[in-house]
Amino acid sequence: MSLTEHYAVGDPVNIGHDQEITIRQLVGVILRITGKSPKVVFDATKPDGYPRRAADVAKLRMVTGGFVPETPLEEGITEMVDQFRASTHEG
């Protein structure tokens, strides 16, 4: 049986990883993978922002019996960028 047979439609589940990363680290990973080098400016005048992020996967674990993706962040971003480039012929 698939998950959709047991889970109500319209109740979103965050499919992510609970690995915490700073926004600065995430930007660095994305730039390294894409080979881009734009000027990055962190606006310290916005103190209510999110300096660190991690997905809340509690509901994911609950509805799947404990599943959380195991793909490391950098590997997942690399796959996503490669797929995007292939689909847009940016490669």
Main sheet strand line-up: 1-2
- Mean pLDDT, to the nearest integer, reads 82
Number of domains: 1
Query: What is Rg?
Result: 17 Å
Content-based structural category: mainly alpha
Residue share in β-strands: under 5%
Order of helix and strand elements from N to C terminus: EHEHH
- Please give the largest β-sheet: 2 strands, antiparallel
- Shape-level CATH architecture: Alpha-Beta Complex
Distance between the termini: 38 Å
Alpha plus pi helix count: 3
Poorly predicted residue ranges: none
Q: How many distinct beta strands?
A: 2
The amount of helix comes to 25-40%
Give a structural overview.
It is a single chain. With 91 residues, the protein is mainly alpha-helical. It has one domain (3-88): UDP-galactose 4-epimerase, domain 1 (Alpha-Beta Complex). 38% of the residues lie in helices and 4% in strands. It has 3 helices and 2 strands. It has helices at 23-34, 58-64, 73-88, and strands at residues 21-22, 52-53. Strands 1-2 form a two-stranded antiparallel sheet. The mean pLDDT is 82.
